[in-house]
């Protein structure tokens, strides 16, 4: 019997800036709609503040860090406590690369904000597919 | 101690509790007590960011946690912050068992109601703290 392999997608969840909202919504879109069979997540503060069980998260799963800003809390936290991330995505960098303005409200994304979050979600999916196609992760895990 | 009161949600992303705590926080800092309250990223605090640690040491803080792990409360205390009060979304769900809610990404009507109740409690606490501060 085999089960689908999981990749950990860890978002910074930053409340104080709109890029944090985009990173959080994009991550949830991947978890719920785009790759629900192949992804798991953990609350970043729980990962940081947690005990060994939570810290083992990134030892069990290859991880993709999704950060809002250049402070890269998610990437730095994972690499400090659990080892290298498989991929790091920074929303602020993507917005600059795409020449897209920041969405206006950190509380609730408008239509344009949702389009941005969907694009970021697609970037996460590209990273997930690249990990699987690289052969670093088996398509299924024997259990 | 002057300045806005910092309302710090747990940043939870895995369950609906975190979404409720975050929505309640935004409700307070952007609507109910705009100018009297502000928020910050819990992840920055947990990562030991100097500016963020300074903020929690120099402002009164309200932790708004989603679940019993209480990441916000614990990290404010670990950072030497001034914890003035703490709330938990999970407690509110226990009080309002009729308001079943599941949606994590976007709150449904019940989730919004719960966030509203939580926001009102936080706002009242801010009023109390402001009165106490005025007496000092």
How is this structure best described in words?
- The complex is a heterodimer of chains A (143) and B (136).
- Chain A has helices at residues 18-34, 44-49, 52-55, 57-60, 73-81, 91-98, 111-133; strands spanning 2-3, 7-11, 39-40, 62-67, 87-90, 141-142.
- By secondary structure, chain A is an alpha/beta fold.
- Chain A has a 4-stranded parallel β-sheet with strand order 3-2-4-5, with helices on both faces. Chain A has a two-stranded antiparallel sheet with strand order 1-6.
- The longest helix of chain A is centred in the last third of the chain and has 23 residues, at 111-133.
- Mean pLDDT of chain A is 88; it is low at 139-143.
- With 136 residues, chain B is α/β, with parallel strands linked by helices.
- In chain B, 54% of the residues lie in helices and 15% in strands.
- Chain B contains 6 helices and 4 strands.
- In chain B, strands 2-1-3-4 form a 4-stranded parallel β-sheet, sandwiched between helices.
- Chain B is globular, with a radius of gyration of 14 Å.
- At the A-B interface, helix 1, helix 2 and helix 5 of A face helix 1, helix 2 and helix 4 of B.
Strand line-up across the major sheet of chain B? 2-1-3-4
Give the mean pLDDT of chain A: 88
Structural class of chain B: alpha/beta
Give the overall silhouette of chain B: globular
Share of helix of chain B, binned = 40-55%
Strand content of chain A: 5-15%
Biggest sheet character of chain B = 4 strands, parallel
Please tell me what the overall shape of chain A is: globular
Q: How large is the radius of gyration of chain B?
A: 14 Å
User: How many H/I helices of chain B?
Assistant: 6
Weakly predicted, low-confidence segments of chain B: none
